[in-house]
Amino acid sequence: MKELLPFPGQEVRGVSPALEKYTLDLIAGNLWKRPDLSPRDRSIVTLSVLIARNQTIEMPHYFNLALDSGLKPAELSEIITHLAFYAGWSNALSAVAILKGIFARRDIGLDQLPQACPDLLPLDQAAEERRATAVQESAGPISPGLVQFTRELLFTNLWLRPGLAPRDRSLVTVSALIANGQAAQIPFHLNKAMDNGLTRAQVSELLTHIAFYAGWPNAFSAVPVVKGVFENRPKPPSEKPK
Amino acid sequence: MKELLPFPGQEVRGVSPALEKYTLDLIAGNLWKRPDLSPRDRSIVTLSVLIARNQTIEMPHYFNLALDSGLKPAELSEIITHLAFYAGWSNALSAVAILKGIFARRDIGLDQLPQACPDLLPLDQAAEERRATAVQESAGPISPGLVQFTRELLFTNLWLRPGLAPRDRSLVTVSALIANGQAAQIPFHLNKAMDNGLTRAQVSELLTHIAFYAGWPNAFSAVPVVKGVFENRPKPPSEKPK
Amino acid sequence: MKELLPFPGQEVRGVSPALEKYTLDLIAGNLWKRPDLSPRDRSIVTLSVLIARNQTIEMPHYFNLALDSGLKPAELSEIITHLAFYAGWSNALSAVAILKGIFARRDIGLDQLPQACPDLLPLDQAAEERRATAVQESAGPISPGLVQFTRELLFTNLWLRPGLAPRDRSLVTVSALIANGQAAQIPFHLNKAMDNGLTRAQVSELLTHIAFYAGWPNAFSAVPVVKGVFENRPKPPSEKPK
């Protein structure tokens, strides 16, 4: 965690000694060591926020940190591919331009990357039918093309690519939505994330982590949406009265 | 359409073979060939999204593609000028910095660009009176300066510049609003766009196209707003029961 | 105000003679000379918008303009530090990368910058208690970490740093919120800004100014929120009927 700044610490100090100190004490020395999200999870969240907001300055540091904290090159590749759809094509291509330099320096080649067309994970037919029916009702009459691509590309293809676990794919998606203030799209994906294994404690800590990387206002704007999702889900066993 | 990537395809492949394949098969091979929006329209929409989101990495490719698919240098100039007001001054200046290099390489000079102060298109006095009255009522007591500039600069000047057709100017505006998730401003401008000739089928396809360039969440967040506009407009003749 | 463009005027003219003229006539020749916001205030607002939206192209010009119109190096340092929390860490670091070059050329060193841990301004205990209670009720059960950092870092530390007056800190915050369309967070901070001395006329002019730098849609989307805040505050003495 020594290299947490995008340029040598002394240069941040030359503009803001306070920002240098906050970065070292708070982010490196505190936030990343808190429980409930592992350093690997925090790498996924941080990179998702940076890519979703097209912020390249911290990407070299965090791509390297991700590789050093357990994320595989194939997983970074899938995170970028996933965010092409959930944040926009240019966001993904800007991240590619950074990551390819890092892959080159680490001698990471095609053999460590996911195939373009791998065997897909099995589809949960019932859940997909519910999703497709709901989307067809709301969006079908307005944009049949959007609805068709959503089914064929996203939910029966992208989400089933095996290079990134569904739970991690959800973490990427929810992080991007919160980071970009897309409140209306959070409930579906937060429910999906929790169905995929994300716990309430992890969601709570996700809000804390994102506050630093996407700003306090985005974190606070997500709070009532998260609250609504929590209240409408059955209580997890550990929280039920005995 | 061979050069759809901002850098040689092989370099995208070196990070994400899947993203390369999606780009070639889906975007170049499918999306841009779909009916309802011409390649010229898709160039307008794509550039508006990129400028509105300040994403420079794909701009060189799409500025060149636009010039090759029928947009005139004067129209590109007007798109940037228009978006200074609808996306922010820096967004326009970042696009200028890219496009001036392309104009230089193509020997496009001042004689092909719109004048700073051309003869303006005629104003629809009745429509402008309705708009000005509504805005005065809602915003006049809060920010008279904003209301005054909106009238003098935008609706009796910028929108009447002859270098870009009103229908195309509307396409630029609506694309930028959807790409930035500015739902509250969509109804007025989508109605204006449809008054200016944009059809329901084109709006439907616009949502599909924008999903790729500004991400699925922005497209889906616009769906209920578009639905509301469609429902409140008189049905077009072709959809009326016989 | 001669150097208002990020590159020589002739180059903007080479893409859009209209944009050059609007910039010179409207922004330099009109907007910055309007009453109700001083050039110093306009520098704070403009830089806050640019940093909050991560738009680096105009930053060199406006950092220099800010130093020339009365903002101290220490105040620029604090604006960036403040926006790390209110816009995101990367936004602050991108601004640092620009400003350090300007500080170097002007021979501005550590002796002109705020300390990392200065003596803090006194805390308004009653106001902080009200804020903390409200946030605990709404966000405490969802994200205790977020609530704790908000209290310990933001309201009993960052906001009390002496290098930037509370009224200016509020101006930074409100500008960033409007520029990023974060409507839900505006009422608390606009009320705080007005408690800190920002007048209705200044807020009105703030909307006008931001329209140019963050685009008309962000200014208009803030209007109903500002209206709600104005209506719920006691009328200032000057507006009371006699």
Strand content of chain A: under 5%
Oligomer: homotrimer
Helix content of chain A: 55-70%
What is the number of beta strands of chain A?
0
**How far from one another are the termini of chain A?**
43 Å
Q: Largest chain-chain contact?
A: A-B, 49 and 47 residues
What is the alpha-carbon Rg of chain A in Å? 19 Å
Essential attributes:
homotrimer, 242 residues
Write a concise synopsis of the structure shown.
Three copies of one chain form a homotrimer. The first copy, chain A, has 242 residues and is mostly helical.
Describe this structure in words.
The structure is a homotrimer of 242-residue chains. The first copy, chain A, is mostly helical. In chain A, 64% of the residues lie in helices and 0% in strands. Chain A contains 12 helices and no strands. Mean pLDDT of chain A is 93; it is low at 1-6. At the A-B interface, helix 5, helix 6 and helix 8 of A face helix 1, helix 2, helix 11 and helix 12 of B.
